[in-house]
Structure formats: structure tokens, C-alpha cells
Amino acid sequence: MTYDKQLTAVLVIDPYNDFISEGGKLWHRLKAVAEANSCLSHMSQVLSAARKAGLRVFYALHRRYRPGDYETWKFIAPVQKAAWRNKSFEYGTWGGEIRSEFSPQPGEIVALEHWCSSGFANTDLDLQLTRHGIHQLIVIGLIAHTCVEATVRFAAELGYEVTVVKDAIADYSDEEMHAALDVNIPNYASAVVTTKEIVDSIAAL
After folding, report:
1. Residue 84, CB-side half-sphere exposure with 13 Å CA sphere
2. Measured between alpha carbons, how far is 180 from 186 in angstroms, rounded to an integer?
3. pTM
4. H or E element in which residue 128 lies
5. b vs e for 134-162, b when ≥16 Cβ sit within 10 Å of the residue's Cβ?
6. Contact at 8 Å (CB) between 197 and 172?
7. What is the pLDDT of residues 62-87, one digit of tens each?
8. What count of Cα atoms within 13 Å lies in the side-chain half-sphere of residue 69?
């Protein structure tokens, strides 16, 4: 793909300590894959390149667990039951904070938190992107087969052109990475690229 600086933004999904920091509730499940593909350093490289080039940066963040979130719900998805059980990304805790090197900078947009997996469902992400004139998304973050895939699918439904940076995302296993990156996401993302490829493309803008 080619990118238009005025139309392109980086979308960072769920860079919480619970996912990607030592001691996080889910890090032990992600660690092998994230370290094998150097996910964290690649995320940093993409984000740095985008900021240097003046691309807009948006954040799609999972709902940070708060007591009372699910107790009275009549219908709840399995992934939400897991969040409730684990108190994933609990609000007011270190695990529910964004890992420091990925913290939003002034002027960057943090969308309303999503309750399930898609960064678009029941949030203002589409509104924010539209109002800022964004049509092309470069996606990095966690995790491949749930929030990344769901957000990419929804973006395609809404008409966005999406690029997924395959070594700037991670998952619980190689099998889940394969299912997301090689089977499902290519149906919705216009491009699946490496960090080097996207950094070179951004630098050329």
C-alpha cells in the first residue's frame, strides 16, 4: 500500500502492563510469542516513526475492570467472563495502566474503552477517526486473535484501509498468531507487513 500523510494514522491497541510488562496478569501467556518476534521494540519503532513523520496516533483500549461491571449483566461473552474472573486491566492498578513507553502524548486521541474485542464497537473510535479525516489505519498492539482481529474486521466493514504490522502484535501461542495473521486478517487488512516495511513507508512520506 501507499499512504497519504493526511489520511493515515497509527492505531495502538491495548498496550497495558497486564499484557506486556513483567509481572502483568497475562504477560506469562504472551511472553514467548512477544519475545520471539520482538513485539515491544517493534511497537516502539512504529510509534516513533509515526510521531517523527507527524502522523496522527489513536488508542483503542480495552475496558479496565471495575467492580460492578458485569455482576448484573444478563448476557456476557466468554471473553468478558474471563476479564471478570481475572480482573484484567483493573482500573486504578498498575496492570490497568498503559506501559510507559507507549503512553499517549499530547494531542493523541484515546477512544472510549471497548467492552469486548473490537475497538469500534460501542465506542467513539469511528467518530474520532472520521472527524480527524483518517481513512488509512496502521495497526499495532495486542492481541492478534481477539482485539486486533476484531478491530481490523470492524474497520474493514466501515470502509477503512487497514495495514497490520505483523511483528508489532503478539498472541498467546504460535497457533493463534497463525490463525489471525495467515488465515483471518488477510481477508480484511489491505496489507500485512513487517516493522521495517512500514517504518520505511512512513519515512518516505
Report:
1. 15
2. 8
3. 0.97
4. helix 125-131
5. bebbbbbbbbbbbbbbbbbbbbbeeebbb
6. no
7. 999 999 999 999 999 999 999 999 99
8. 23
